[in-house]
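Take a look at the protein record below and flag anything odd:
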Amino acid sequence: MSILDPQTLLAGMGPWALGGLSLMIFVESGLLFPFLPGDSLLVTAGLLHQSLGLSVAVIALCAFLAAAAGDQVGFFLGHRFGRRWFRPDARVLKTAHLEQAEAFFERHGGKALVLGRFVPVVRTFVPLAAGTSGYPYRRFVVWNLTGAFFWAVGMTVLGSLLGGLPFVADHIDLLAVGLVVVSVLPIVVAALRRAHAARASNDAEATTTRDEEAVGDRS
């Protein structure tokens, strides 16, 4: 089984598929591990609900509860530990991930808890950013439940609706690959933007240094 192949992953879990899906959603939402296929996993579960022996309503409910509970954990981790766990050179808990989530949260406020659900990596660290910034807990709960509902239920129902289309039903393998690509695309784009910004900054510093040296030589 591979986490990059939601169809094989869910099928391989057998009777534990619902528990495994719920655990992965919880971990991605609250335990600071952003590299799980949350979007594609939910859509694929909706697509395959009949073969998994599960109803769409049960999958959506369990995913909603797992997502909401995960964000609760993320909020309390942020409130308790803040930025102390993060390092610029860390493999997973990179300072850049938290700074990205904090910037997203600052721009969108409480709505970031809803919007961030649909952005890989950001959805893992926005609850942590909310807790770190001292965001009021009562307001956090409202936005958390709203975001968890629209994301978990929406993605699962979307998958079940797509499963009713003959083309989709006959090409689930291709769809699963496409969902993974779409899920990781924002991560790749953000990394490329950071790399481009870093190169531009380095080039600007190098140019400034050369200009200063040239001025010094002339004087």
In short: The chain is about 75% helix and 0% strand. The radius of gyration is 21 Å.
